[in-house]
Write a structure and sequence with these properties.
The protein is α+β, with helices and mostly antiparallel strands. It is built from seven helices and seven strands; from the N terminus they run αβααβββαβααβαβ. The chain is globular and about 45 Å long.
Length: 209
């Protein structure tokens, strides 16, 4: 009986941990970065990263630039077809996996432990980046999964990935857009349904010295 009680407490503690929400620092909208033209000049795909963790402010600014709320009406930095806002952004790190809430500008943990390897797939360099951002298309939010919907949702994921690319170029971070990943393992880990589809991912880190 005592063992059952201890097991129940352990399960409750695990559930509480996975429900933890971390509020991010406000995005620094006065951040000093490159000009628009310099940013385009510096944009490139980088496949080597420092192992140093991103600072909280850099992570906050990165996620806001990717798909944060930039207007009082709740619209986002990345366009989405018919404003469906169907792209889910997950953050993989050595500590665990979190889902970004653009409305609250916060992270909610959905899995514990380091799972960057399932995003890296056979391209092992990707798991060296301290953060991997995964874009998942939620076709339930979009309202359809026909051929046109698949095209539109894929393009919307591309906009988010491009926002990540451009922010990294402007802020001196390193990244590369990728479609390689272990989709089956990701869907199992994140408990995605058949209408939630991993589409793209971006490893992000400081440049390797």
């Amino acid at each position: 009986m005592k063992q059952i009680a201890l097991l129940a407490v352990a399960l409750l503690m695990g559930t509480t941990c996975l429900a933890q929400t971390q509020n991010l620092p406000k995005p620094n909208l006065q951040r000093q970065t490159l000009t628009v033209m310099e940013m385009f000049q510096q944009r490139k795909s980088v496949r080597e990263y420092s192992a140093k963790d991103l600072s909280e402010q850099d992570l906050s600014d990165l996620l806001w630039a990717a798909i944060g709320v930039n207007r009082a009406n709740g619209n986002l930095t990345a366009p989405t077809a018919m404003n469906r806002q169907e792209i889910l952004l997950y953050v993989f790190s050595r500590q665990g996996v979190c889902l970004y809430n653009s409305k609250a500008h916060s992270l909610t943990q959905v899995a514990e432990g380091d799972h960057r390897d399932i995003l890296a797939g056979f391209q092992s360099f990707a798991k060296e980046a301290p953060v991997n951002l995964l874009m998942v298309g939620d076709f339930d939010r979009f309202g359809s999964k026909d051929a046109h919907a698949q095209s539109m949702v894929s393009m919307d994921a591309g906009y988010v990935s491009q926002n990540i690319d451009l922010f990294c170029a402007a802020a001196g971070l390193a990244t590369v857009p990728r479609a390689t990943m272990d989709i089956a393992a990701i869907k199992n880990l994140l408990k995605l349904n058949e209408n939630q589809v991993p589409l793209l991912n971006n490893p992000v880190g400081y440049p390797k010295e």
